[in-house]
Design brief:
The complex is a heterodimer of chains A (118) and B (113).
Chain A lengths: L4 E3 L2 E4 L5 E6 L6 E7 L6 E7 L2 E4 L8 E4 L6 E5 L8 E8 L12 E2 L3 E5 L1
Parallel strand pairs in A: 2-11
Antiparallel strand pairs in A: 1-3, 3-8, 4-5, 4-9, 5-6, 7-8, 9-10, 9-11
Chain B lengths: L8 E5 L4 E6 L7 E8 L6 E6 L4 E2 L4 E4 L5 E6 L8 E9 L14 E6 L1
Parallel strand pairs in B: 1-9
Antiparallel strand pairs in B: 2-7, 3-4, 3-8, 5-6, 6-7, 8-9
The chains are: A mainly beta (118), B mainly beta (113).
Chain lengths: 118, 113
């Protein structure tokens, strides 16, 4: 099966500019996640969608970050305005597990979008 | 979710077995143990998971202590392509607020030829 697609792979912007990242999850996966990974650290969850609804956005800096998944498939993550500390890899992942379901939850990740803010 | 503790880094020789430890002393009875790894310049990839019994798959084996307070990921013959950061993660299957995985710092495995 096709994996999780992300674009762009690399983006360099200056602080206070805006940027958007796109993610196409595995077909049929209801749950989509955006993670932020700062160099040398593990990924940190920003937002989780189930279909087109937000399940958890408690760690999303809502003053500058926004995300949407309008038709329950593709998703975009936007940063406006960007700060130096937003330099990171933005990872999208998807899974077939629905909210509240029991059992193991296997996530499939994309390759990520590397953002450098100058 | 309960916290895990892993060594920051480990070294191994190529074609030798590797045992990657993970401590999770506050694990609850409904926590699944997941292992993911992240190769350079890639997103994390699923390796294996288990609840109580030891598990084997194509990639690795997972040995879970009887009291479940620790586990070990076993790579039977390390190759240079196994050089990655390995993450041990707990997920409570009864958690209803969401089902995301919370990553720690992981163990960086270096494989020497």
């Amino acid at each position: 099966e096709a994996g999780v697609a992300q674009s762009p792979r690399y983006k360099i912007i200056e602080k206070r500019q805006s940027v958007a990242f796109w993610c196409n999850p595995i077909s049929g996966h209801a749950t989509l996640y955006w993670y932020q990974q700062i160099l040398g650290q593990g990924p940190k969850l920003l937002i989780q969608f189930q279909n087109n609804g937000v399940v958890d956005d408690s760690q999303l800096p809502k003053d500058r970050f926004s995300a949407e998944r309008l038709k329950g498939v593709d998703s975009t993550l936007k940063i406006q305005p960007a700060k130096l500390e937003d330099s990171a890899v933005y990872l999208c992942a998807s899974s077939s597990m629905a909210r509240g379901a029991t059992g193991a939850n296997v996530l499939t990740f994309g390759a990520g979008s590397r953002l450098t803010v100058l | 979710d309960a916290k895990t503790t892993q060594p920051n880094s480990m070294e191994s020789n190529e074609e030798e077995p590797v045992h990657l430890p993970c401590n999770h002393s506050t694990i609850s009875g409904t926590d699944y143990i997941h292992w993911y790894r992240q190769l350079p310049s890639q997103g994390p990839e699923y390796v294996i998971h288990g609840l109580t019994s030891n598990v084997n798959n194509r990639m690795a084996s997972l040995a879970i202590a009887e009291d479940r307070k620790s586990s070990t990921l076993i790579l039977h013959r390390a190759t240079l392509r196994d050089a990655a950061v390995y993450y041990c993660i707990l997920r409570d299957v009864n958690r209803h607020a969401g089902n995301m995985l919370t990553f720690g710092g992981g163990t960086r495995l270096m494989v020497k030829p």
